Amino acid sequence: MINIVLFGKPGAGKGTQAEFLKEKYNLTHLSTGDIFRYNIKNETELGKLAKTYMDKGDLVPDAVTIQMLQSEVDKNPQSSGFLFDGFPRTIAQAEALDAFLESKSQTITATIALEADDEILVKRLLERGKTSGRPDDQDEEKIRNRYEEYNQKTAPLMSYYQTQGKFHAVNGIGSIEEITVRLSHIIDSL
User: Is 89 a residue of the active site?
Assistant: First the structure.
């Protein structure tokens, strides 16, 4: 079983690459954003709880996010592995994910970060914002705030996984195909 955490700032191409990787390696793609949207849209108990925090502009507590993720893992017992996209975002979440996977006799195989210059990513997101309809992709100040949050909360995860020998960085600039080849090279070497 292969369990991969895919990192990268907003606009780095995680979602695009996840589509290719899940097909190529027969992985179940678990996007935290998609899981939140599903639970909120379908008014699950966890979705209602998450929405109370989101409506106030607060971050959803780790415990709620982890419960949603655990539910998705449990729904896919026949999966040959998972591709975690957007989770974990903090060391506390990484530790909770490790503990949960350990309870299933599993572990994170590797973490891969798509790296790209902020200025390039800002341009990508502003361009995406023209068609995505996402307000957070249309405001440069909000985009830069998201990067600052990433730097403060998510970037420390790199050293967390480096100490475990599981961290790999990939140049996230280039064609979709070039980046997919770079990612595949790492996964094939695991």
Answer: yes
